Give the backbone structure.
Amino acid sequence: MKVLHGDSVRANLSTLDGDENQFEIEAGEKTLLQVYFAWKTVTGTPMIVETYYPESLVGDRASEQRRSFLPLLLGGLGLLIVAQLPLAMALTHRLKRLQAQREHLLERVIDSSDLERRRIAAEVHDGAVQDLIGITFSLSAAADEAPEPMHERLSGLAVAARHTVRSLRSLLNSIYPVQVPESGWAAGLDDIIGALRQRGVTVGVDVPDVRLSPANELLLLRVGREALRNIDAHAQASHVDITMHKSGNAVELLIADNGVGFDREMAASQRQVGHLGLQLLRDLSQDMGAVLTVDSDPGSGTTVHLKLEENR
């Protein structure tokens, strides 16, 4: 105990070696916590009370307090989880519903595009193509009856008309929408791959046997067919690799050739004259949340890269 005298404090220092600590030493305590607090006597004399607590006792009391609050803490967390669970389930259900609505809208957009493609293909086939075929027959017949040099000129025009008909039919094949085969989207590339191999092009295919959502498989098929058509028509390639990887929800398609390649100016000029196949597929990919890129340099080949997320 310390007694205050005015503004000064008198105190006696004590250690564990002091006589006042003999009971703590006998109890086996090695560390004591010393506590002071102010006090006044009945007469108003200010005093400071000094007391000692074994450190082990303080530690035990603290542990007891923590243990007493632990059930309350766990109970509060449990109640919070229970309260948040309906909200989390509602948000998950809403997210799935919105995803389903988005996929439904994309399918409707694709169906509308397919319908328009069929209409255009039918009009061109039944109109311009049939007219050109008639002109070809007429030119051939006129050439047979015409003397030289008119015979040669009419025969040349008939050949040019037949070439135009073949070009239009090839264009119609690219315009007309394709459907994903029952065996998977990769099977829809077999005809073009077969045509490339007949021309001596080595085609490597590394596509795992996994099924994706109908919209994603249709996108993969369209990108694959457009890329292979361009290779067949322009690349002058001797080797093509078709690779697809799926890691988690991420799907990547790579179609790389060792052809002549092209630069940006050439790609821009192709778009200006109406070659919009890859650009249209870029727009469709963007609408579906996918990314389509085309990397090419003159003399270094071309790589078509499609990256999408499988949410099914």
